[in-house]
Amino acid sequence: MTEDLMYQNEIRQAVRLAYAEIPTGGGEPVTRRSYTDEELGLLPPGAVNWALGVGNPVRHAALQPGETVLDVGSGGGIDSILAARRVGPSGRVIGLDLLEEMCTRGRTHAQQAGVDGWTEFRRGEMEAIPLPDTSVDVVISNGVINLSARKSRTLAEVFRVLRPGGRICIVDLTVDEDLPPAVLGSAAAWAGCISGALSRRVLLRKLENVTFTDIRIDNPVPFSLADAALYPLFGSQLIDQMRQLLPPERHDSVATTVLITALRPPL
Ligand SMILES: C[S@@+](CC[C@H](N)C(=O)[O-])C[C@H]1O[C@@H](n2cnc3c(N)ncnc32)[C@H](O)[C@@H]1O
Which of 40, 52, 227, 263 is the most buried (most CB within 10 A)? Predict the structure, then answer.
């Protein structure tokens, strides 16, 4: 038990340090994988520069004007801003991030995008979301849940803040085949979202345990070593190490990006 707790703490510290230290996000090479030119045209350059996600949850979330959206692990605010465009001033977007630096970036970018009137950024942890029960219509997230050392707790928190009938639309990485221990134990690989990724089977079970319904884990897209190299979190040393440790057939698919949708059952 104590060992587990220490390990969780170690992960938490490694993730915090890694994101506090990076000088920039993935920028255009990362956004080009997931966003259209039209979407990118709606964003200030800083929001693009700080992009660190692995997909485009807003595209699939069917957001409606007036809805309240929580963006878990909002980073530089890219998806919060796109969500704010969809829900409009009668709606509300709350970006949540572990780091105050990220929240400050999110606020600046939301202001530059002209959506700051209904978009806010709060510092906090996904394992203890600082929002009341049943206060949110939709939870989106992009490349974040896999960073949690307490994923069941995170999913339970997401469930708690959703109103009955509310939904999740989350993009994340999954890993269905074991990774070498050297990669699993690497702080950089945790921060880069690979080591903490669950298999689809375990992810499904955790979502079911929290009592989400209509669960779908869809749109699998391979995440290659070349994709990983686009992110400032990995570093060339870790990429080289993974290239040596992983069999060549896994270089094009170290992990899989998936779209996770589910409902909190209506009352
Ligand atoms: C891979 S980045 C994704 C950022 C953003 N979603 C995007 O698409 O650009 C992960 C983000 O999650 C934040 N984060 C990490 N652990 C967190 C936690 N326990 N609670 C809330 N945010 C966390 C990091 O600070 C970082 O901004």
Answer: 52
DSSP SS3 for 179: coil
- Rounded distance between C-alpha atoms, residue 25 and residue 19, angstroms: 9
Closest CA to 97 of 61, 66, 130: 130
Tokens representing 6 are: 């220490």
d(CA 32, CA 51): 10
Q: What is the pLDDT of residue 234?
A: 85
Atom of ligand 1 nearest to the CA of 50: 9
- CATH code of the domain occupying 2-263: 3.40.50.150
**pLDDT for the residue 1:** 33
**Is the CB–ligand 1 distance for residue 52 below 6 Å?**
yes
Residue 235: count other Cβ atoms within 10 Å of its Cβ.
16
Q: Residue ranges of the domains in the chain? A: 2-263
Question: Which residues of the chain register pLDDT less than 50?
Answer: 1-6
